[in-house]
Amino acid sequence: MQIVIGGFSQGKLGYVLNNMCSEGEKVCVLDENDVTDSSVSAFEEAFRSLPGEYEAGDACTIVVNHLHLILKNLGNRERTLKLMEILREYCYGMSQNLIIISDELGCGIIPAEQEERTYREDAGRIMCTLAAEADSVTRIVAGIPVRIK
């Protein structure tokens, strides 16, 4: 698993598609628009169905784009923790390359609303856990990669 983080509109997805995916390899991008409601089961169904588009043995890179927005759409801590379990289980059980892209959320003004603070804290904890288990973590600034791990 690889993680790419950075600010809004810094070129994360473009960097991933141009530099982290092998030529000729199939790439499947999942983002917040692929989940029709805010339930974990809808996300789990969308996520687990991705490799099914390919024949067994096909090399495939799965890109989870906008993880921070997917987490926000889930709406509460219980669903967010369940999503973390799904991602971790999937990362360990698959042979395909998994790349997770997320905006950085903790570099701005602390929100006044408790719900927004909780969302940011949950997203931060999930990203810390995933980063600890990731093979690499890259931060993108103005389209330029900075390898963190």
What would you call the structural class?
A: alpha/beta
Cα shape = globular
The CATH homologous superfamily is named P-loop containing nucleotide triphosphate hydrolases
Number of strands: 6
Mean pLDDT: 81
Describe this structure in words.
The protein is of the alpha/beta class and 149 residues long. The chain has a single domain, classed as P-loop containing nucleotide triphosphate hydrolases (Rossmann fold, 3-Layer(aba) Sandwich). Helices cover 43% and strands 21% of the residues. It is built from five helices and six strands; from the N terminus they run βαβαβααβαββ. A six-stranded mixed sheet has the order 2-3-4-1-5-6, sandwiched between helices. A hairpin with a 2-residue loop joins strand 5 and strand 6. The radius of gyration is 15 Å and the shape is globular. The protein starts with a strand and ends with a strand.
In terms of topology, how is this protein built?
Elements: E1 2-6, H1 12-20, E2 26-30, H2 40-49, E3 60-64, H3 67-74, H4 77-93, E4 97-103, H5 114-133, E5 136-141, E6 144-147
Parallel strand pairs: 1-4, 1-5, 2-3, 3-4
Antiparallel strand pairs: 5-6
Helix pairs in contact: 2-4, 4-5
In brief:
The protein is of the alpha/beta class and 149 residues long.
Which characteristics define this entry?
single chain, 149 residues, alpha/beta, 6 strands
